[in-house]
Specification:
Structural class: alpha/beta
Distance between the termini: 51 Å
Number of strands: 12
Strand order of the largest sheet: 1-4-5-8-9-10-11-12
Number of helices: 13
Largest sheet: 8 strands, parallel, barrel
Shape: globular
Bound molecules: ligand PBG
Strand content: 15-25%
Length: 356
């Protein structure tokens, strides 16, 4: 029998073992040098085989800021590369997103200052800016999912997500308004309603109202664990609520110090009828994403927020970071933590990178 080079290697090793006095070749034992994790990492093909996670265009949700007017675009100061778009241009943007394979967009209106009031009345107007944008996009790009924020901050004169009664954000009065806002958005054709206000009981209230009004297929994405974060600064500028905001949102959004409380929030929102849950902000809260996904196994999204976008964009502008690599690494971190999808202002850029 002809011996193959492989057999020869084995026999040489055996010889060596014999000469060194031991009866049998050394048995593999745990740890180094038996285990050398670098073996699997040596070649590109091998790294591809052992790769645990992947970022896919199907994981991306693109938030778009909408303004009044036609053929109008205005830059968002702290978000280089992000613009507020008039409805006609938002339709074009949605077409572009769909062409790249992005499954869904999220619309955020910058309401005219004259339309903002104490009661957020414009939120309940079926012909408000975001509803008109939903209708226009649905008509032109029927196959892209449309997500609408359910929260009053783009509509209140004080920039808070809730209605103020005697100097306090009134939970139950706010929920009444949120129900109306949700119905108006569902009627306009929003596929997913995303309450981002953090009032208690709003998911159940909105779910009940949707069922009662025959919107049985409208999905609810609960901003379940949303923290009172400083990462939202550029967003508030984008929707025009930042300068108006008096005080902070600590009375309704979560304390960044808390983790267990996030699990309670998520549990309640699932019980109340949420189809998906969100953790927000993103990168600094990946431990929460992981815990939520582990504990509940429901579709879990994360929001790569405006402040996180700003940090990457600013450093990249200065040539301090490689934008494309950082953003793909960031998205991978979300996936590794268990996020099923990520809201990111980099969605278009990421989708383009994934194509090449
Ligand atoms: C509104 C809302 C906010 C964000 C999404 N929806 C701001 C806030 O709660 O103050 C933040 C998004 C971002 O920073 O990118 N309730």
């Amino acid at each position: 029998m002809a011996s193959s080079p492989k057999d020869k290697t084995v026999s040489l090793r055996t010889e060596r073992a014999k000469r060194s006095g031991s009866k049998t070749p050394r048995a593999a034992r745990g740890s180094y040098p038996t285990t050398r994790l670098r073996r699997n990492r040596r070649a590109d093909w091998s790294r591809r085989l052992i790769c645990e996670n992947a970022v896919n265009t199907d994981d991306l949700i693109w938030p778009i800021f909408v303004i009044e007017g036609e053929r109008k675009r205005t830059p968002v100061a702290a978000m280089p590369g992000v613009e507020r778009l008039s409805v006609d241009l938002a339709v074009k943007a949605a077409e572009e997103a769909a062409a790249l394979g992005i499954p869904a967009i999220a619309l955020f209106p910058n309401t005219e200052p004259s339309l903002r009031d104490e009661l957020a009345s414009e939120a309940l107007n079926p012909a408000n800016l975001v509803c008109r944008a939903v209708r226009a996009i649905k008509g032109a790009v029927p196959d892209i999912g449309i997500i609408c924020d359910v929260a009053l901050d783009p509509y209140t004169s004080h920039g808070h997500d809730g209605l103020i009664v005697m100097g306090e954000i009134d939970n139950d009065r706010t929920v009444e308004a949120l129900i109306m806002q949700a119905l108006v958005q569902a009627e306009a054709g929003a596929d997913i309603l995303a309450p981002s206000d953090m009032m208690d009981g709003r998911i159940g209230a909105i779910r009940g109202a949707l069922e009662d009004n025959n919107f049985t297929s409208t999905q609810i994405l609960a901003y379940a664990a949303k923290y009172a974060s400083s990462f939202y600064g550029p967003f508030r500028d984008a929707v025009g609520s930042g300068a108006k905001l008096k005080g902070d949102k600590l009375g309704y959004q979560m304390d960044p110090a808390n983790g267990i409380e996030a699990l309670r929030e998520v549990a309640l929102d699932i019980e109340e009828g949420a189809d998906m849950v969100m953790v927000k902000p993103g990168l600094a809260y990946l431990d929460i994403v992981w815990r939520v996904k582990e504990a509940f196994g429901v579709p879990t999204f994360a929001y790569h927020t405006s402040g996180e976008y700003a940090m990457i964009a600013a450093a990249a502008e200065r040539g301090w970071l490689d934008r494309d690599r950082i953003l793909m690494e960031t998205l991978m971190a979300f996936k590794r933590a268990g996020a099923d999808a990520v809201f990111t202002y980099f969605a278009l850029a990421a989708a383009r990178l994934l194509k090449t």
